[in-house]
Design goal:
mainly beta; 0% helix; Ribosomal Protein L9, domain 1; globular; binds FE2/S2 (inorganic) cluster
Length: 80
C-alpha cells in the first residue's frame, strides 16, 4: 500500500479513498472500515457523498437507487 492517500470521486457515486487513512467520529472514536463483500479486509474506504447511506459515513450502494448526481447545478460552471 502506498504512503500517499488518494481520494477519487466516483461519477455519481461515493468517494474512493486509497492509502493510509483513519475514519473517526466527531468525538475521536475510530470507526472500523467495513470488510469487502467476500469478508477480506478492505483495501480502500468507500465514503458516501449522496447522503442516503444507512451506514454513513460509508457508502452502502444507496446512491444507485436514489438518483444521486454529481453534475453541477444549472447555471454553475465546474471549478476544476
Ligand atoms: S454515495 Fe453510495 S450510498 Fe451514498
Amino acid at each position: 500500500m502506498s504512503d500517499v492517500t488518494r481520494i477519487t470521486p466516483k461519477p455519481n457515486g461515493p468517494l474512493i479513498v486509497e492509502g493510509p487513512v483513519k475514519i473517526v467520529t466527531q468525538d475521536g472514536r475510530e470507526l472500523p472500515v467495513p470488510p469487502r463483500k467476500d469478508g477480506r479486509p478492505a483495501e480502500v474506504v468507500v465514503l458516501c457523498r449522496c447522503g442516503g447511506s444507512a451506514t454513513k459515513p460509508f457508502c452502502d450502494g444507496t446512491h444507485k437507487r436514489n438518483g444521486f448526481s454529481d453534475a453541477a447545478p444549472a447555471g454553475l460552471a465546474p471549478t476544476v
